[in-house]
Amino acid sequence: MAPPLDSLEVFKTFQQRLAKGRKADHRTIVVSAGACGLASGAQKLIEALQAEMHDEDTAAQVAMRVTGCHGFCELEPSLLVEPEGTFYPRVAVKQVGRLVKAVACGEVVTDLLWTDPDTGKPVARMEDLPFYRKQLRKIMGRNEKIDPVRVESYIENGGYAALVKVVEKGNPDWVVEEVVRSGLRGRGGAGFPTGVKWRLLAKRPGREHKFLVCNADEGDPGAYMDRSILEGNPHCILEGMLIGAYATGATQGILYIRNEYPLAIAHVRTALEQAYEQGLLGNHILGTEFCFDIQIVQGAGAFVCGEETALIRSIEGKMGEPRQRPPFPIQQGIHGEPTCINNVETWANIPLIMLEGAENYAGTGTSGSAGTKVFSLVGKIKNTGLVEVPMGITIREIVYDIGGGAVDGASVKAVQTGGPSGGCIPVSRFDLPIDYDSLAKAGSIMGSGGMIVMDNHTCIVDVAKYFMGFLKDESCGKCYTCRKGTQRMYEILEDITEGRGRKEQLELLEELALVVKDTTMCGLGQTAANPVLSTLRYFREEYLEHIGNGRCPAGVCKALITYSINENCTGCGVCASNCPTEAIAGKRKERHSIDASKCIKCGNCRSACKFNAVEVV
Amino acid sequence: MNGMIHMTLNGLTVSVEAGMTILEAARFFGFPIPTLCHMEGLSPYGACRLCVVEIGEAPRSKLVSSCSYPVEEGLVVRTASARVLRARKMVLELLLASCPQSKVIQDLASEHDIRQQRFRQEHEDCILCGLCVRMCEEQMMAKAIGFRGRGEKRSIGTPFDVHSEECRLCGGCMYVCPACQLRCTYTEPDKAICGGCANISPPCVEKDPYDDMMCYMAPCVACEIKKD
Q1: Could you tell me the CATH number of the domain that includes residue B65?
Q2: What residue in B sits closest to A304 (Cα-Cα)?
Q3: In this structure, is residue B124 part of a structural domain?
Q4: How far is B19 from B1, CA to CA, in rounded Å?
Q5: Strand order in the sheet with A62-67
Q6: Is the ipTM of this complex over 0.85?
Q7: Which 8-state DSSP code applies to residue A282?
Q8: Once rounded to an integer, what is the mean pLDDT over residues B147-159?
Q9: Mean pLDDT, chain B, as a whole number?
Q10: Could you tell me if A227 and A214 are in contact, meaning their C-beta atoms sit under 8 angstroms apart?
Q11: Start-end ranges of CATH 3.40.50.11540 in chain A?
Q12: Does B119 contact A at CB distance below 8 Å?
């Protein structure tokens, strides 16, 4: 247990002591136990490991550390052995015994390693996996080093050193200018320069308080990078906010976390308790005159509360609904006081900038977008997971080199970036470098970092309908054009997917989408038309195919497809036994047929057939 | 407020008081802007998006709701550009498709030359403009009704849908409603109120026998029609 860190000297001595105490050759099994790891069975793995290491001999040779997510969701639950960095994917409980014994002797269990599908050879070290090779894991990489519920673990790995550096320097203006020089832009989606925002806040006098908010209301479907940072490294957010408070003179901090993240809330709560106990938060931080408080506010599950003015109202206890800007939160935020809101990932970058210096930080990425960005790579792709890459990398590199391309011989068709209000980028534009401006030019947005991969079995109209359905439910409903506009766009998309679409509806859809984009008050509404506009821009043919020819090329829209059985059929009868409506008939060892009047197009037969005999037309 | 602000309004250089909204400034200089959820004496809300105007210079110009956007030094405003008119027409077409009974919306649509309605016809009553909510809170000091839910499920009503003790049956909510005026047919109590104010008992149906004196809406459109 750490002593109260009541002066900078005490902190430094403590940190040195921790660093010295670390045994470099001591083997540690690191368990990836973020929410995704736990969901795939990491808890059972932890229990098995504990049982295995019960005896003193093993315990003396091998230690265990439970950490947040390591990023490779596809292969959870995974283990990492330090110091070699050996990576074991999808570990089963029954393999634990063998593994621990091998680790204790310093051996590698070759048959449990990940096998490269291209070469057929096992790969031992984590950093040699193609998934990790092209990544630059400045933020995510700390997840496997830190036990999120122990502040000592964070301090041991260089935590709070950035805060100490800043406090020692004693010049808040320098901190603000350093962040400006670093070129860091808001990771929440809009990409506003963080340093400029801080400069504005630092200049504004508050009546009683100035607020800093960490926006952890991550609501985009398929995006979860903020969750994994909060779960895996909560102290780095606190440190970022402390540095922000020191730079801008803010006195109150609020972590707005959505209620759907119970583990993140628990870890942040523990981190806050520890930070207060150690004198890293509260009055006279590290024995100086600097005072700052942080509290947690739990969001109640409205997507729109990620919009900053709605978030402020939610913190005030009102209904989450955006209001007119200006006045901006920097001018009038929580209870009318100046408020600066930054995203989780933005805060996580702050300690890094302070430690490595603005110039070094700006060296990564492109001239307009510095640093790295974490994306959650999901959808129809081999390697799903959280990837952290330098800005300016192309979509192609992420999808094919890191993500490994499409699954089961399909071909990738497009990626959807930026969540429901982002847009689809077709495979023909995959050489686009990923930064704020290029994505905006291509009709999408960076957003918070969701990246959903679609293959040739994904119907673009259906995707647009899905996102529009999400937005119509999650629009706050204040602006008429957003509320009714999303409903009407959904209605038209529904017509098209159900075979009732008319050519003039497509024009109406486009006209309406442009007006919704133009006339709505907040960012959610202004981007709500993006799923329609970007798919119309790149996949108009597919829309026309639905309307003009009554065909769904991807074979998704039920009203436009029919199932049939071709000559590949061996008459095994598996399709018939899987059919819930008894629509399939045929003699054994003879080609079967589907009765279209009974068929409900559930697709069971197609997924059950081993001979590719079920076709969709 | 603190002094005057200089801005360009439809090509004219004008100076207006700081703290005004674009709508107030435009109306002061005689430029008409249609509104639906705006009412003098109630705080601006910006829900109907009918009062949008274009600010800034192309290509970075954008549309904002003039009722809620404050005037700024050097602001360039166009109240009736092609982009603005296109947006307004679409808003009205949407309104007309969902709430065709409202006389206010019919008149606005006719003024703006809406000759077609391309969406599937609906018969909703409440357009959630929030005039009643603000009237109740800001002028009647009652706060008996408010918004609930979001997206499609957003509605106006009393907490927990029970009769509110805060409601003094003043009828202010119905008086300001742009959508329900024609639907208050007092002799048929069950049809008397529109969806938006379903949980507020209007004075004319509460009293039995119906006592015209209780109705503060003089003249009540419904009563007038009944007389004819």
Answers
A1: 3.10.20.740
A2: B150
A3: no
A4: 6
A5: A62-67, A27-32, A79-82, A86-88
A6: yes
A7: B
A8: 90
A9: 82
A10: no
A11: 151-361
A12: yes
Query: Can you give the pLDDT at residue B165?
Result: 83
Q: Is residue B71 part of a domain?
A: yes
Q: Based on C-alpha coordinates, what's the Rg of chain A?
A: 27
CATH 3.40.50.1980 matches A562-616: no
> What confidence score (pLDDT) does residue B180 get?
67
The predicted pLDDT at position B225 comes to 47
Query: Of 3.40.630.30, 3.40.50.2000, 3.40.1190.20, 3.10.20.600, which CATH number belongs to A372-455?
Result: 3.10.20.600
* Residue numbers of chain A with a pLDDT score lower than 70: 1-2, 23-25
Reading the block at residue A510, the tokens are 């486009």
* Whether B74 and B161 share a structural domain: no
Domain A151-361's class?
alpha beta
How large a percentage of chain B has pLDDT more than 90?
Answer: 56
Token readout for A231 is 């779960």
Q: How far apart are CA A197 and CA A333, in angstroms?
A: 13
Q: Please report the pLDDT score of residue B212 as a whole number.
A: 45
Predicted local confidence at residue B209, as pLDDT: 43
How far does chain A reach from its first CA to its final CA, in angstroms?
Answer: 67
* Rounded Cα–Cα distance for residues A52 and A46 (Å): 10
* pLDDT computed for residue B177 by the predictor: 85
pLDDT score recorded for residue A66: 96
Q: Which of A89, A61, A59 is nearest to A73 (CA)?
A: A89
**Could you list the residue range(s) of the whole structural domain that residue B222 is in?**
131-227
| Chain A residues close to B99, C-beta within 8 Å | none
Task: Check: CB of residue A474 under 8 Å from CB of residue A525.
Answer: no
Answer whether A349's CB lies under 8 Å from A316's CB: no
Domain with CATH 3.30.70.20 in chain A: 562-616
Which two tokens mark B180? 């329900």
Nearest residue in B to A506, CA atom: B118
- Amino acid identity for residue A15 in this structure: Q
* The three-state (H, E, C) secondary structure of A469-507, written as one string: HHHHHHCCCCCHHHHHHHHHHHHHHHHHHCCCCCHHHHH
The domain tally of chain B equals 2
Q: Where are the beta strands (DSSP E) in B118-165?
A: 146-148, 155-157
Identify whether B163 is part of a domain: yes
Buried b (16+ CB within 10 A) or exposed e, A402-439: bbbbbbeeeebbbbbbbbbbbbbbbbebbebbbbbebb
Give B-chain residues touching A473 at CB under 8 angstroms: 150-153
> Can you give the length of chain B in residues?
228
| CA–CA separation, A1 and B149 (whole Å) | 47
Which two tokens mark A473? 């439910």
| Higher pLDDT pick, B1 / A214 | A214
Instruction: Give which of A518, A520, A527 to mutate to test B binding, by max B Cβ within 10 Å.
Output: A518
First CA to last CA across chain B, in angstroms? 50
The domain defined by A460-548 folds into de novo design (two linked rop proteins) (1.20.1440)
Task: Give the contacts of B147 (CB within 8 A, at least 6 positions apart).
Answer: A319, A321, A477, B128, B130, B133, B154, B155, B156
| Integer Cα distance of A514 and A528 in angstroms | 10
Q: Do B150 and A477 touch (CB under 8 A)?
A: yes
**Three-state DSSP class for B46?**
coil
Q: Does B60 touch chain A (CB under 8 A)?
A: no
Look at residue B125 and tell me if it is in a domain. no
Residue A34: CB partners within 8 Å, gap ≥ 6?
A68, A69, A143, A227, A228, A231, A232, A263
Place of tokens 């903020």: A226
The verdict on B102 and B145 lying in the same domain is no
Q: To which CATH superfamily is domain A25-82+86-124 assigned?
A: Glutaredoxin (3.40.30.10)
Q: State the nearest Cα–Cα gap between B220 and chain A, in angstroms.
A: 27
